[in-house]
Write a structure and sequence with these properties.
By secondary structure, this protein is α/β, with parallel strands linked by helices. The protein has two domains: 12-126 and 358-363, Enolase-like, N-terminal domain (Enolase-like, domain 1, 2-Layer Sandwich), CATH 3.30.390; 131-356, TIM Barrel, CATH 3.20.20. It has 13 helices and 15 strands. It has helices spanning 65-74, 76-79, 86-97, 104-124, 129-132, 151-163, 178-192, 208-218, 235-244, 258-267, 283-296, 306-312, 357-363, and strands spanning 12-22, 28-30, 33-35, 38-47, 52-58, 140-145, 168-172, 197-201, 225-227, 249-251, 272-275, 300-302, 322-324, 337-339, 342-344. The strands form three sheets. Strands 6, 7, 8, 9, 10, 11, 12, 13, 14 and 15 form a ten-stranded mixed beta sheet that branches. The chain has a three-stranded antiparallel beta sheet with strand order 1-4-5, sandwiched between helices. A two-stranded antiparallel ribbon has the order 2-3. Strand 2 and strand 3 form a beta hairpin. The chain is globular and about 60 Å long.
Length: 366
């Protein structure tokens, strides 16, 4: 919003909250297990003025879906009649949940409301979210996050991604031995050659000792980064790995807010950050995190949520790449547009999320 511009007054009349559990054509294989479905909570913040702000949050497991949806829905009574001010609402809700703790499902619910409120505010000004926040809607380089860990299948998937223009691919590891890791890495490398960056992600599956052994071998594979080799909250362990590795270590998708990021940076726990708009606390949390990355000189990529990330990376001084792994696309009228390896922010007002109601009805969890 430009200085001196009148801020339209919006008042929240209610929330519409729906739980969906999508079954993708191909499940996502990780060291933590197979993600056979995609449980999401869809959030509509409805205003008296007729503007609706939209967002969604990921639950990762269907076991958390009903609880997350119920928690968001329970906020409706608190929000009804409130002025739609994303920062003010976020502060108010965080104050209510401070004694419970601002992590886990509580943090996810609050971030979902903040993201939807930010969408409504940008819509009230008739501009895309990136423009409302003061950025330029420019194309963002993207990388493809692979769904499979098996060497031959991963190589085929990676080759297909690079053939349509992706400038990088990410391979998940940690399901087996170092020999299996190297087999998968080299199969993917043979498929993509020098046309794209290759990143790997252990999804927190190694002990620090195991990680030190593996990164020593992986240092010879020309990787762009090694992501979350050990427990996400173990800053000391990650710092030890950073000190021993020549390959950059990436961390960030499991930071519960910018304060976690500050702690990791202070510990020297990473060389590259991966920002998750939901876990960071929504749009405001991301912007704070982007400033921290800039201050530390750390390249910043996104973690999932491409619909929001394509706006927010444009505002991130040290942006690197957008992670493309399409979770919500099947229930959107217009998924994120990726052309020749670049993601394009939509030119319609707000963050661009519009539900395909027929698809939502198909996957709705009663």
């Amino acid at each position: 919003m430009t200085p001196g511009e009148t801020d339209p007054e919006l008042t929240i009349s209610g929330l519409r909250v729906r739980a969906v559990d999508l079954v993708p054509e191909r499940p996502v294989h990780t060291a933590a297990g197979v993600l056979a479905s995609t449980p999401l909570v869809l959030i509509d913040v409805v205003t008296r003025e007729g503007i609706v702000g939209r967002s969604y949050v990921r639950c990762y497991t269907p076991l958390a879906l009903a609880a997350t949806a119920r928690l968001v829905d329970d906020l409706a009574g608190v929000l009804a009649g409130a002025r739609l001010d994303p920062d003010g609402l976020d502060d108010s809700l965080r104050a209510r949940f401070r004694l419970v703790g601002l992590q886990g499902l509580a943090a996810i619910a609050l971030a979902g409301v903040e993201m939807a409120a930010s969408d409504a505010r940008a819509k009230a000004h008739g501009v895309p979210l990136v423009s409302f926040l003061g950025g330029d809607p420019s194309p963002i380089p993207a990388y493809a996050s692979l769904r499979t860990m098996a060497p031959a299948a991963a190589a085929q998937e990676a080759g297909g991604a690079v053939s349509v223009g992706f400038g990088g691919v990410k391979l998940k590891l940690g399901g087996g031995t170092l020999a299996h890791d190297l087999e998968a890495i080299r199969a993917v490398r043979d498929a993509i050659g020098d046309r794209a960056e290759l990143m790997v992600d252990y999804n927190q599956s190694l002990t620090v000792t195991e990680a030190l052994e593996r990164v020593s071998a992986l240092d010879h594979e020309g990787l762009a980064w090694i992501e979350e080799p050990t427990r996400a909250e173990d800053d000391r362990g990650h710092a030890e790995i950073v000190a021993a590795a020549r390959t950059p270590i990436a961390l960030g998708e499991n930071w519960w807010g910018p304060h976690d990021m500050e702690d990791s940076i202070a510990a020297g726990a990473c060389d590259h950050v991966t920002l998750d708009v939901m876990k960071l606390g929504g749009v405001r949390g991301w912007l704070t995190a982007a400033a921290l990355a800039a201050q530390a000189g750390l390249p910043a990529s996104s973690h999932t949520f491409p619909e929001l990330s394509v706006h927010l990376l444009a505002l991130t001084p040290t942006r690197h790449r957008l992670e493309y792994l399409d979770h919500a696309g099947p229930i959107l009228t217009e998924p994120v547009r990726v052309v020749d390896g670049f993601a394009y922010p939509p030119d319609r007002p707000g963050n661009g999320l519009e539900w395909d109601e027929a698809a939502v009805a198909r996957w709705l969890v009663s």
